[in-house]
Design brief:
The protein is an alpha+beta fold. Helices cover 30% and strands 28% of the residues. The termini are far apart.
């Protein structure tokens, strides 16, 4: 009898968890059409001077003085940002950092979507320790407190 009650309670618990999970999924996809229409996808690739992709490049997208987003390149050197285009301002720009290369800045208005950004080693290159600090520090971008 006790086993039956425990099994029944377990089943009720599992079903309630599953239904709660499904209702949360519906809320995420239930965005209004206005929100979806304003979604902009910004993507590109980071390469070295020989056009070889660079993996794990840290990219900070400054939307304005109080708003930023982060991305890290894939093994193929690609990155992507998805954002509401109303967040983009005139001064919006990328800061691209990787160890052994100079810091690279690109204005968002001058960036051609889907194109490659070429990093170089001319000038003051970023040491590994500074790269790791930047890599970790941009993880807080885009989070609302």
């Amino acid at each position: 009898m006790k086993k039956g009650i425990v099994i029944l309670m377990s089943l009720i618990f599992l079903v309630s968890c599953k239904s709660r999970e499904n209702s949360n999924d519906n809320n995420d996809t239930g965005k209004s059409s206005g929100q979806l229409e304003n979604l902009k996808v910004i993507e590109g690739k980071v390469v070295d001077p020989k056009r070889k992709p660079i993996a794990y490049v840290a990219i900070k997208l400054y939307l304005d003085d109080n708003d930023c987003m982060n991305a890290y390149t894939s093994k193929e050197g690609t990155f992507q940002f998805k954002l509401d285009e109303f967040r983009i301002k005139e001064q919006s720009h990328f800061e691209i950092v990787y160890k052994g290369y100079t810091i690279h800045y690109v204005s968002l208005r001058n960036f051609q979507n889907g194109k490659s950004i070429i990093l170089n080693k001319k000038g003051e290159v970023v040491p590994a320790a500074e790269y790791h600090v930047f890599y970790e520090s941009i993880k807080s971008c885009g989070r609302k407190s």
